[in-house]
Amino acid sequence: MTSVFKALSHPARRQIVAMLREGPMASGDIAQAFDMAWPSITGHLTALKEAGLVETERAGASIRYRLNISALEEAVAFLMEIIGTGEAAESLSQGKELKSP
């Protein structure tokens, strides 16, 4: 999970995740939204992929990126547990064991 938070620490990566919430996108379409060199975009996409936040599929000559919701859900559940909200906090306050994902 450390890699998820590290990947989300960069504002460009957070913007890419937000863009992918609308649906899968080709790498070229993602790159057009930024004023940075292609190698920088590739590095950000690679960091997101290595963290498990995005998945890829080849579509002809381009690569399409899709958000991996389960990785985000796990990170959100962890944060909710820390701040004491949600089902995890209720279970803890009632002395119940947490179910592992």
Provide a short characterization of the protein structure.
The protein has 101 residues and is of the alpha+beta class. The chain contains six helices and three strands. The chain is elongated, with a radius of gyration of 16 Å.
Written account of the structure:
The chain is an alpha+beta fold. It has helices spanning 2-8, 11-20, 27-32, 38-50, 69-83, 86-93, and strands at residues 25-26, 54-59, 62-67. It has two domains: 2-67, Winged helix-like DNA-binding domain superfamily/Winged helix DNA-binding domain (Arc Repressor Mutant, subunit A, Orthogonal Bundle), CATH 1.10.10.10; 74-101, no CATH class. Helices cover 58% and strands 14% of the residues. Strands 1-3-2 form a three-stranded antiparallel sheet. Helix 1 packs antiparallel against helix 4 and helix 5 (69-83) crosses helix 6 (86-93). The chain starts with a helix and ends in an 8-residue tail after the last helix. The mean pLDDT is 85.
List the helices and strands and how they pair.
Elements: H1 2-8, H2 11-20, E1 25-26, H3 27-32, H4 38-50, E2 54-59, E3 62-67, H5 69-83, H6 86-93
Antiparallel strand pairs: 1-3, 2-3
Query: Roughly what is the average pLDDT, rounded to an integer?
Result: 85
The total number of structural domains is 2
Strand order of the largest sheet: 1-3-2
Assign the CATH superfamily of the largest domain: Winged helix-like DNA-binding domain superfamily/Winged helix DNA-binding domain
Which regions have little confidence, pLDDT < 50, spanning 5+ residues? none
Distance between the termini: 12 Å
What would you say the CATH architecture of the largest domain is?
A: Orthogonal Bundle
Broad structural category: alpha+beta
How much helical structure, as a percent, in the residues?
55-70%
Please describe the biggest sheet, giving its number of strands, its sense, and whether it closes into a barrel: 3 strands, antiparallel
Name of the top-level CATH class of the largest domain: Mainly Alpha
Q: What is the string of helix and strand elements?
A: HHEHHEEHH
